[in-house]
Design goal:
The structure holds two protein chains of two kinds. Chain A is an all-alpha fold. In chain A, 77% of the residues lie in helices and 1% in strands. Chain A has helices spanning 6-20, 29-36, 46-70, 80-99, 108-132, 136-158, 161-182, 186-211, 216-234, 236-247, 260-281, 284-304, 310-331, 349-353, 355-368, 370-389, and one strand spanning 339-340. The chains are: A mainly alpha, B mainly alpha. Strand 1 (339-340) of chain A pairs parallel with strand 1 of chain B, so a sheet runs across the interface.
Chain lengths: 390, 366
Amino acid sequence: MIIYNITWLKNLIIQDQMKKVQHDLQPGELLDILEKHPVPFHSSNLFMRIGLFVVTSILTSFAFGFVSLILSNNQLLESPAYYIFLGLISYTALEIAVREYHHYKSGVDDALLWTAGSLLIMAPYVYIDMKYNLNNLTSGLLISGMISVLGTYFTLRFVDMLMALLTFCAFIAFVFFAWYEYGFLPFATMPFLMMIVSATVYFLARDLFKKHWIYKDCLRIIQLASSLITYAAGNYFVVRELGSIMNDISLSPNQGIPFGWFFWLWTFGVPLVYIGMGLKQKEVILLRSGLILVAMAAFTFRNYYHILPIEMVLVIVGALLLGLSYGIMRYLKTPKHGFTAEELEGDQVLDQLKVESLVVSGTFGTGTTSPEGTRMGGGNFGGGGASGNF
Amino acid sequence: MAIPIRKSCQIDSKNWPDIAKSFSQIYVYLNILSISSRLMTNADLYETLKEEGTLSPESYEKLCEKQGNTLFSLHWELKTLLYLGVMMLSTGLGVLIYKNIDTIGHQGILALIAAISGGCFYYCFKHKKPFSKELVKAPNAMFDYLLLLASLSFLTFTGYLQFQYQVFGTNYGLATFIPMVVLFYVAYEFDHLGILSMAIANLAVWMGVSVTPSRLLSNGNFDNQTVIYTYLGLGFILLLAGFLTDRYDFKKHFRFSYLHFGTHISFIALLFGYFNAYESKLAVLWLLVLFALAFYLYLDALRHQSFYFVLLVILYSYLAVSILVFRMLDGINNMGGLYLLCFYFIISATVLILRIVRLNKQMKAS
């Protein structure tokens, strides 16, 4: 099923791991290991991957445009078979690039994968949708089903993380639409069904994660996504708003929902459970999704109960966060219970990319221009105010 | 597709075991799939290497021991929380002040902001490591964020001061110049990349706006050319700063930030310059400058083994070449031009792909 040479994938893991711990090796040992475990893949650095993705997309779109231009007087362009044909061409190109030229996450293969996938899905979908004039539900059912099937194949064959994520989301959407259309009391049972389904996927992925190192990354992202969706399925806001849309009724702002207490409990309890479990089992995915979800819970609460004005909340929470993280850092100054606040060796990928400084300039970049705004306004206002006073 | 679902969803409970069974079959299949190639944990990996003989017993012992007491790092989680805390606190305070300006009074607000900024700066000065031309690591993880908070509140402070009391009078240039200088100083003194980016953004504000308002006042119409030249000047200054940092070995790791902003700004300014002068015959000069710059930056990026800048240069120059080709083909009658355009893109993209692939290999090998 898998297209890549498994030994090479294995060697890739060996190389990565040994490079991480190279300080503990004896001189020359690393080179020896690298030599005995070659990885003849052609993979690109992250930036090169982006560049190759862009250029390959340009190439495919103009090549297809060229073919279409030649055939522009033909009836052929109207049939879905033509687009499927184009999709198959990109798929063939993908297979060749990977098999013959050993591309592995190089950007070229990514571009071809997504081109092939979208053409192969969209062509039949648009055709069927137009021909049978499907309603929203069946059309959603159709496309999510198609994506799940094709996506599963692509994920298993090309081990692509994003494809795995898309496939999982499509699968969840498929279950949703299917239950909505054909299920038993869909309105009342939907949240519980979604919880059960995505929790099952989570545990399945976690179990598989330990056994299938090839799909490690894919399974990791599925774990993250499924843990988030398990939460979302029972989040008060999601249940209330999605439920009222599904049922086509508008709830008044203060109106509760049946089993409201349960969903509130879920909204606040689950993030804490995630964080607790993440810390206890030292699972980074659960811990991080728990942290994200605490914010979600806070937003949900604020959406229904306005106790404090927003700026007060920001100040208080901001100060609390600073205090809390400072406290934890102090507490973990010497590692306790297997936790540390320090960075681990060989984990500085983000540091190398200087992502943090870019994030700072991105979020505060506009903030720094505020002196300009106040200055310009200040000039005008100041003058106006002065003349008004006198 | 819809039929089997309808069947299975009619709550005939007898269908469920079938579904469960097929699921478990898939599961078993997946298991078999990779059972031949199991390699689960790092411990297994070390063991395989040892059995092969590539890993010496001493190293194996060492690695296994380390593996046994690996710590679970909360580093990034804590950093994110700190960052969020700083962001929320400074935003919240800003809004709070804005809303309560009538009740607190200006002096009170100013004092509060100054206290926060001063307090944080005090902490940073007290805990900082001595200045060095090289990379200086922050003494603790809190340090960077307190410094960020200090600088942000300092910016608010000066902005507020000018807005309310016109401390700098009508000398608008000075009102942005001083924060900028302070930010640059802080960035160098404490070795903080984030604040360096803020300082660069402030430099742009200072330059960009101190040029245009004077024009705006003198003749009342806004000439685009000036903005373009300003941006171009800014871009070149930043590139020069990046170059000098490297040349004199002074905070070498700041080079990335300078070049990052410098490259984008210069290329964008040059492209806009070209379009602004599109009608005139001299427009090509802009692109010639662009190609010259691209060539220099390309060699520079190769020398520094920087994938990011190689990519930037390639993409910007490809864009420029494509613009030129597009212009040339614009004159030809519709269909022929379109064919040629497709042809150009197909060929150029293929060449570019091959080139990037080769480049990637070369840079990796060295």
